[in-house]
């Protein structure tokens, strides 16, 4: 299988069992650009490594030094197969092109709930906002309840932010975190939403107050990225009529 490059991953697909998310610190905007090109080359020079890897995406941090990596998998076994056969050779090529990359950890998550664009909404995201939420211990039910509380707040917000396109909430398999992968029309739209009345993105409502004061939340962060590179395997050709008959 060869590689197909595209502008964004398909976040609405229903065959994703796991997501792997990580951040690399590469130091400078120039090294950021070089690393993205090194990733592209390392993957383009090889066949797609595993049928269970559904997509692989890299976004460039607004800070000029980080890269956010987001990959969709059929399940953990597919990732482990790739880890044993394919990951290191790609990373070796990338490290040879851009020495000194700091890899800041890898989190394993499951897709949970999403808000999707409305019918006919063809807006392309100019900004991806990654929201990390960390809890004070492992509790898978609490992760989902926090996300459900966010959805109640979104559904009752009298003035939702106009630049938001979609939001995709993931829960950590270890029960300790939530990650929201949110698509926005532009970084400025997100900046404007944060500056609007309220604490963060969201109006001053009791529902949003419950989100912001939810017990057990210990930290996290909000980071903006520019879409940079997304890949998936080329679809296999349809068999010729009568083939195998």
Please provide a brief summary of the model.
With 245 residues, the chain is an alpha+beta fold. The protein has helices at residues 29-44, 76-84, 87-97, 140-156, 187-195, 206-212, and strands at residues 3-6, 18-25, 53-61, 66-73, 102-115, 127-135, 164-172, 177-184, 217-233.
Detailed description of the structure:
The chain is of the alpha+beta class. Helix content is 28%, strand content 35%. It has an eight-stranded antiparallel β-barrel, surrounded by four helices. It is globular. 31% of the residues are buried.
Outline the fold blueprint.
Layout lengths: L2 E4 L11 E8 L3 H16 L8 E9 L4 E8 L2 H9 L2 H11 L4 E14 L11 E9 L4 H17 L7 E9 L4 E8 L2 H9 L10 H7 L4 E17 L12
Helix pairs in contact: 1-3, 4-6
Q: What is the string of SSEs from the N terminus onward?
A: EEHEEHHEEHEEHHE
| Cα gyration radius (Å) | 19 Å
Uncertain runs: none
Mean pLDDT: 93
Q: Give the CA-CA distance, first to last residue.
A: 24 Å
Kindly report the spatial arrangement of strands forming the biggest sheet.
Answer: 2-4-3-9-6-8-7-5
User: Helix count?
Assistant: 6
Summarize the amount of helix as a percent range.
Answer: 25-40%
What is the number of beta strands? 9
